[in-house]
Amino acid sequence: MGIRSRKFKWAVGIFLFLVVAGLYYSWGQASPQEAKEAVASVMDNAAAATSKPWWFWPIALFITTFLIGIVAVLGGVGGGVLFVPIVSGFYPFNLDFVRAAGLLVALSGALAAGPGLLMRNLASLRLAIPVALIASTAAIVGAMIGLTLPRNIVQILLGATILFIVALMFFSKKSEFPKVKKPDALGQALGIYGIYREESTGEVYKWYVHRTPLGLALFVIIGVMAGMFGLGAGWANIPVLNLLMGAPIKIAVATSKFLLSITDTSAAWIYINSGGIIPLIVIPSLVGIMLGSFIGVQLLAVARPAIVRWIVIVMLLFAGVRAILKGLGI
Amino acid sequence: MAQRLDPNTQIEVPPEAIIYAKILKYGSLIGIGTMLVTFLIYILGVLPAYVPPAQIPQLWHLTAYDFLHHIHLKSGWDWVHFLGYGDMLNYVGIIFLAGLTIIGYLAIIPFLFSSGARAVGIIAIFEVLILLLAASGFLHAGH
User: Fold this and answer.
1) Which one of A272, A289, A293, A294 makes the best mutation probe of the B interface by having the most chain B beta carbons within 10 Å?
2) Interface predicted TM-score (ipTM) of this complex, two decimals
């Protein structure tokens, strides 16, 4: 990457930070007192929530998640990573119910995408099954930690994680075909390799992985975070599978999506069994995200991905700051 | 670098991937369809509700643990006893979606062993055990 390009990224980053800080200031500090009180009451006060008819909330949630679904597809991120910070930051629901719904949102997306990815040999079962065992076990632990910790601490950690994801989206690279000089012993023993056709060129590639033990170890952390925050974990899966373990980017993206159907399942069970399901929150969210994703796919042909990606980054930045402030009680 | 092969190389989708894909495809359709139908039953009042929709906004600021306590429901599978209520019926579709991975794994384990992928097959058995443990209701948290 050139120095000019790096400077440009920094300049855009600082600009976005200032925009978000300005938005927050104008929204939280400089608005008229009545508006400020109304916003605060909707956010934090259950009594305010009851002042609206019950059907207002599922409809509002449906509209919000519909838009999230569109933006997520266009921005190339999972719905869960936008859903949890935005809904937990701007709706009066306890974080427990939002995380449970977030896991089910990510799970449904992965289940819907799974068949196509498997049938095109892009999602690899040989790669996913060992990784999933580690990640799903860790996700159970993460879910139990997340349900035990005080919610304001989880909210602050969630905000910090979202800001980390923003940094990852901003700085991380991807490699179409990472160099794998020699598959490692564990990868070979588990038979982690595959063949796929690159549809854009018609060429056929055989791929292997390396650094499997380190990759599996990192999935402990990824699993814990997925379970604790209900985020899905594509943002972390893809760099580890692609940049660290050396899977081609298309295999990494597809296997990551498929992996979510296993990792999120285990964490979702903990939330379900701990009382984290409110149908009035879960079902409108799922339907909204699915319809939004459908429209998003239709818009892919005409949208400008770079601009949408910036919109996603700004939304996440805003939601991350909001989560930290909410956790701090500000 | 991934190894480039002859473009005419035949690519076969492994049988376990085909089975798993079919289970996910039809299973997710059934699960989402069930969720939609049960949700309509709930909000339209076709069946009585264990917790009426109008009362939910007064409760969703509680933690999951306090929520269960408030509505006098135990953690785990206690909801099964109240399937005659519209809101509890919604759990059926959600549970089905969450259980789909277990069904998929059980279906592909024999194929993994027959194709010689014994190590991956054993890992898949452990995965099923982990998911069954998570689903069992023994593991829950919150205070």
Assistant:
1) A272
2) 0.91
